[in-house]
Structures are given as C-alpha cells and as structure tokens.
Amino acid sequence: MVETPLSEHDYLAMAMLDVSHHRRITREGMKEMRQLMMAVAGPGIKVYDHRTARKLVEVKTGIYQRQYSVCRNQCFCFAADPDGAECPYCLQPRYDDKGRSLDEFFY
Ligand SMILES: [Zn+2]
C-alpha cells in the first residue's frame, strides 16, 4: 500500500493521469483502462473519468489548465487579440462555420 494523504480514489486518479501523460496513452486507451479498473476495484473505490481526474488535480493543486484559441497554422495566439476573427499573419479564419475555434492550445 502506498502512503499518501490522498484518498484511494484521488490517488488512483492522479496516478492514472500521470501514467497517461508519461506513456502517451490516448484518451480511448485510458477509457479502456478505467473500465478494467472499475471491474476489479473494491467497493467504495471510485475510478474517475479523465475530465473528473483533471478537475481533481486543479482543485488539489490550485493550478488550472488554460485553453487558448490559436491559428490553425500555429502562427498566432488569439489571447493577444481576443476579438480577432482571422490570423494577422496568414489570414486563416479563427472559427469554423459553426463558430468553433479551428485549433486550440492548452497551457
Ligand atoms: Zn496564421
């Protein structure tokens, strides 16, 4: 047993995020791992999905991931021009026809 101030399910969630990041396991792969763990986890052990685990890390650490809209050609971050509709360098549009950013950057 690992000594940790975290609950078993919080520790498991953070460990799974760590493994997925360092081993570059896809979200689909992590979904399958979660299903396997849920099948064998003892009663009372929660196996969080990826989104819930990430939120847990944010709450526990106070470090939040930011999402920025960027040019699809990676030449401009719209944080510098929040109302901009096209890249000032390559003139590519920022949004698709449904109003979604064509690319995003997580920091
Ligand atoms: Zn551009």
Describe the structure.
With 107 residues, the protein is mainly alpha-helical. It is built from three helices and two strands. The protein has helices spanning 8-22, 27-40, 50-61; strands spanning 67-69, 104-106. A two-stranded antiparallel ribbon has the order 1-2. α1 packs across α3. The longest helix has 15 residues, at 8-22. The structure holds zinc ion (ZN). The site of zinc ion has 8 residues, from loops. Zinc ion binds at residues 71, 73, 75-76, 87, 89-90, 92.
* Ligands bound to this protein structure: zinc ion
User: Which regions have little confidence, pLDDT < 50, spanning 5+ residues?
Assistant: none
Tell me the Rg in angstroms.
Answer: 19 Å
Largest sheet: 2 strands, antiparallel
Helix content: 25-40%
Helix-strand sequence? HHHEE
Largest sheet strand order: 1-2
Count of the separate structural domains: 2
The shape, in one word, is: elongated
Percentage beta strand: 5-15%
The mean pLDDT is 91
What's the count of strands?
Answer: 2
Total helical elements: 3
**First and last CA, distance:** 33 Å
Counting helices, strands and paired strands, the structural category is mainly alpha
